[in-house]
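User: Design a sequence. Structure:
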């Protein structure tokens, strides 16, 4: 972070020994006799990329009327209110504009900052002009990285990248262009060119509107037409596997493909523990206790901003999968499964289901004696159900 501050040029008379000034300051003696008798400039100062720079603010005051510690003109100055307001506003504009510059161009140079400050001082640009649709979106993502989980940030970045692709093929995006016409154009792009389904489209529009509200609260734009953008998501029909179909997935011969076999095993392990994909991905060897008569998985589950500790019982089949797929010679802090991305896992489990002949198209919900196994059009999720003997312990 670049710190902006003010300094004076030629504060004291020529030839004054600065060591004497420091001694007077230490003793609390007045320095009036040493101050420069002429008005001198207040400079905007900073250090960027290890290089010190300063730019004349074009404001001049007598040295005796400047408070270096408070970075303000003293009340004795007849125009103290006006000058201090100007200095406060100028510093705020510079800090916000420099933050935008860094967000847009992490490889910025020291001279880039100097050019920006000079333009602000000379009135060639102002802060509101600097905050464009894209620079604001960069700052929005930076803020999300500090406040939200990785999964949430990833969704925002995906929408950001979608809009970049849209802009390259259609038109430059500004705050003012985010309206109902934009909705029609983006919807056509997502439907015809990207082949997105309704719920995916709905999520992108929701993220765009959330960003626009954030930018409006920051006073980066005055557009209210974006609120007219509405898109209804579909209600997903829930299907369920029967116990017989689960057995087919467990028993299908996948020896010809280690990748499919591993996906199947992890999927079945998820069925037997009822935990989310993210929890399986973060499972570490040290979280497992397989030595006792009642093996368990000590799970530290994060939902939102809350962290919850739960004990997940492990059935014999789940323990068997762990011993097959995990290398317990590794340190305890190592991940138990080397899991691919969620998309690749879903692709593989579709293939596994086809090979196991689990491909019934008819919608149904089946309550098993020991639990419920959820999936939708073979896009099978890795958050399913927990089984322990004949009781349903946990349903997500």
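Assistant: Done.
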């Amino acid at each position: 972070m670049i710190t902006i501050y003010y300094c004076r040029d030629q504060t004291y008379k020529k030839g004054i020994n600065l060591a004497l000034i420091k001694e007077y300051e230490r003793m609390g003696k007045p320095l009036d006799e040493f101050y420069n008798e002429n008005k001198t400039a207040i400079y905007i100062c900073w250090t960027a990329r290890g290089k010190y720079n300063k730019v004349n603010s074009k404001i001049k005051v007598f040295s005796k009327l400047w408070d270096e510690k408070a970075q303000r003109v003293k009340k004795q100055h007849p125009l103290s209110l006006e000058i201090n307001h100007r200095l406060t506003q100028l510093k705020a504009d510079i800090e916000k504009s420099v933050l935008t510059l860094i967000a847009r161009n992490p490889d910025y140079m020291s001279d880039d900052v100097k050019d920006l400050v000079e333009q602000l001082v000379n009135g060639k640009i102002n802060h509101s002009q600097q905050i464009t649709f894209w620079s604001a979106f960069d700052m929005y993502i930076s803020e999300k990285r500090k406040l939200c989980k990785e999964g949430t940030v990833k969704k925002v970045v995906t929408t950001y990248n979608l809009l970049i692709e849209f802009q390259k093929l259609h038109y430059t995006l500004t705050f003012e262009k985010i309206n109902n016409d934009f909705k029609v154009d983006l919807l056509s792009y997502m439907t015809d060119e990207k082949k997105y389904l309704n719920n995916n489209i709905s999520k992108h529009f929701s993220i765009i509107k959330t960003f626009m509200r954030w930018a409006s609260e920051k006073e980066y734009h005055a557009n209210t037409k974006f609120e007219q953008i509405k898109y209804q998501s579909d209600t997903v029909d829930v299907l369920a596997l029967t116990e017989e179909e689960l057995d087919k997935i467990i028993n299908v011969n996948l020896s010809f493909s280690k990748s499919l076999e591993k996906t199947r095993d992890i999927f079945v392990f998820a069925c037997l523990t009822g935990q989310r994909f993210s929890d399986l991905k973060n499972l570490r060897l040290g979280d497992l206790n397989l030595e006792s008569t009642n093996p368990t998985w000590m799970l530290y589950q994060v939902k939102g901003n809350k962290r919850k500790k739960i004990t997940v019982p492990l059935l014999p089949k789940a323990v068997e999968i762990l011993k097959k797929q995990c290398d317990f010679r590794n340190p305890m802090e190592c991940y138990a499964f080397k899991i691919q991305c969620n998309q690749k896992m879903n692709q593989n489990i579709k293939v596994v289901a086809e090979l196991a002949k689990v491909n019934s198209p008819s919608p149904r919900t089946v309550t098993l004696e020991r639990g419920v196994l959820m999936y939708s059009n073979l896009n099978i999720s890795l958050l399913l159900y927990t089984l322990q003997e004949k009781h349903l312990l946990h349903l997500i």
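Confidence is low (pLDDT under 50) at residues 362-396. The chain has 13 helices and twelve strands.
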